[in-house]
Amino acid sequence: MPFYSYDVPHTCGPDPSICCQFDFARVNNGYSGCPWKKPAQEITDSNVKARSMLILDQWRKKANLYRGNAVMIPLGDDFRYQSEDEAELQYSNFQKIFDYLNENVPGVSVQFGTLGDYFKAVEGDFEPPVLKGSFFTYADREKDYWSGYFTSRVFDKALDRQLERVLFAATDMGATRTEMQSPRRALSLFQHHDGVTGTAKNHVVEDYAKQIHEGIEFVQNWMLKNISKDQLLRGAVDKSIKACWQSNAPRGLSQNLCDVKKQIYVYNPLDSEQQCGDTVVPSHETVRASLPCDISPSKDNTDWIKFDPVTGMMTYPFKEEWMLWKVDKGGAYLFFPGTLKKFKGGNGHDDDGFELKDKGFTVSTPSWKRTLYVKPVPDEFGDSSSSKTFVIDMVYETNLRQPNEEWFVRFTTASPVIENKGIFHTDLNGFNFDTHHFRKDLPIQSQVFPMPTLASIEDSTHRFTILSEHAQGTASLKDGSIDVWLDRRLEQDDARGLGHGVKDNVPTRTRLRVVLESGTFAQEGNEFEPTPLCQRMWDELNHPLEMFGSHDEKQKGLAKES
After folding, report:
1. DSSP annotation of 471
2. What does the buried/exposed string (b/e) look like for 413-427 if buried means 16 or more CB atoms within 10 Å of the residue's CB?
3. Gyration radius of the chain's alpha carbons
4. Residues linked to residue 512 through DSSP beta bridges, in sequence order
């Protein structure tokens, strides 16, 4: 679609004032009529010739932009065809145009069709070009880049992944599509272009969350029954066990409610082993283990990690900064950078400061918290102490209440500083990868990209990769650094269809896994590929152990929506 939008006024040809006249749902001022002051009018015997030739002229002009001899004209828009009358208006009027043109204009054949019909029509006409990469980041006009929705309603983006995660585990246990039909539908529904994007109205967001939350509970209960059945055969079932990670509200932050004093059951859905504390969990097996699964800093030699003594921000092996953009425009779709600031702690960012625990492994403010865990590098990937390969999990919990702020964390390589020459890699869907080149001639908002699971920079000897368990926006605005968005709150609408700002933020958790590797990397010329270690860390982050056990009664109520 070479023109401004996908609505009817911008898809028949280059002149929207003409195309709008052929959106027959706008007859008699439907959908507020045409803004070009040339109203839509129905096709009659007396005007069919003139009207047909008028729109044919637009179609021919659009056809000049196509390689083949067929052209596709979309006919619709958001929230259209909600009644039979509207569908009939479009069909009957266009059919009169088609009949006239097909009968009276040589060389013209017009019909209703599908995407499949179009591709069949052009098949063999020309050798299609090969496009590698993506169209991100999209702008519809001027400097209006759609990089805000990469992070909007980030809680719900995370909730989406939680359902995906438990479905993966249940399927590995043997669940059939029929058994998982309801939660799979809930997950599929959320893939709508106003669902996972975070651009739906508030009540729709709540309904999505309700369906996903119910789906998660359904799948967890199925897994619990499966594990109980398996353990019963071994004579070791505990009837009081429940899923450990739960939330009591659809948009409430989940918590691990299992009693740390009692052993739990853990299931590993991966082909490789995983670890819960000191317990190795073989692939596709359920074993008993003790909480916590994340290795405590006190149990590991972590003297090589350095923190700022005042803020607790990590300074080595890479630098961590809590940052925010203070903005005065933008909404669910659009991001416009305003004033760049460092987060200083407290509700107003300048009062309560930072509370440090465990030498800086945990840093808290009233609205932003970070806990750090060192992830052991599996033996098959070499000696991390000699190769300077590190894996560190940064778990952020945020509760954004300040208006018109975009919160992100900036990671900067410290020793050595990676000289990535403006080259930045992200994934498109967890399988394919995109390479970006920083451009000084473009605005900052154009150089924020979607990060479904991965962002990475490298030079010839080092690679710095950040993995995430859910989608958000990311950028690399200077060599050696990666910004990862955590949440955004906007007071105003950005005139892209939502009709209000994004102010329904809830407490949100983001686990980022930082993988710093040394080796030989081909920075330019080759497509990005994750290393075997990075792929393993990705697998474990996105498909972790599923935990079941007895709940600690003192923990009940902590997972409610605030």
Report:
1. -
2. bbeebbbbebbbbbb
3. 27
4. 394, 468
**Higher pLDDT, residue 527 or 20:** 20
**Torsion over CA of 293, 452, 162 and 233, rounded to 10 degrees?**
-60
Instruction: Using alpha carbons, list the distances in angstroms from residue 78 to 225, 418, 496.
Output: 42, 45, 11
pLDDT digits (tens, 9 = 90+) for 69-126: 899 999 999 889 999 999 999 999 999 999 999 999 999 999 999 999 999 998 888 8
Cα 240 to Cα 70: distance, rounded to the nearest angstrom: 65
Phi, psi of 377, deg, nearest 5? -80, 120
Strands (E), 162-278: 242-243, 245-246, 255-256, 264-267, 274-276
Phi, psi of 487 (to 5 degrees): -175, 165
To 10 degrees, the CA torsion angle through 368, 374, 375, 377? 150
Q: Which residue has the higher pLDDT, 382 or 196?
A: 196
* Tokens, residue 324: 């925010």
Q: Is-contact 403 496, C-beta < 8 A? A: no
Spatial distance between the Cα atoms of 377 and 447, rounded to a whole number of angstroms? 32
Q: Which residue is it, tokens 């010839």?
A: 460
* Bridging pattern class, strands 390-398 and 508-518: antiparallel
Q: Is the pLDDT of residue 66 over 80?
A: yes
Average pLDDT, the chain: 91
Q: Which of 116, 33, 140, 31 is nearest to 80 (CA)?
A: 31
Contacts of 116 (CB under 8 A, 6+ apart): none
CA dihedral 318, 323, 325, 331 (to 10 degrees): 90
Q: Are 151 and 337 in contact (CB under 8 A)?
A: no
CB 519 within 8 A of CB 386: no
Residue type, 144: D
Predicted pLDDT of residue 383: 60
Band of pLDDT at residue 555, cut at 50, 70 and 90: low
Q: Which of the 8 DSSP states describes residue 333? A: S
Question: Bridge partners of 269?
Answer: none
How far is residue 318 from each of residues 19, 307, 476, 515, measured CA to CA in Å?
55, 10, 15, 11
Q: Is 534 exposed, middle or buried (0-12, 13-18, 19+ CB in 10 A)?
A: buried
Taking the model in full, what pTM does it have? 0.89
- Res 561: pLDDT: 41
Res. 1: pLDDT tops 60: yes
Give pLDDT tens digits for 324-354: 999 999 999 999 999 999 998 755 555 468 9
| Distance in angstroms between the alpha carbons of the first and the last residue of the chain | 44
Distance of CA 317 to the CA centre of its chain: 28
CA-based nearest residue to 484, from 163, 154, 136, 146: 154
Q: Contact, 55 vs 8, CB < 8 A?
A: no
- Predicted confidence at residue 526, as pLDDT, reads 73
The confidence band for 560, taking pLDDT boundaries of 50, 70 and 90, is very low
Return d(Cα 3, Cα 67) in angstroms, integer. 17
Amino acid code (one letter) for 158: A
Count the neighbouring beta carbons within 10 Å of the beta carbon of residue 144: 20
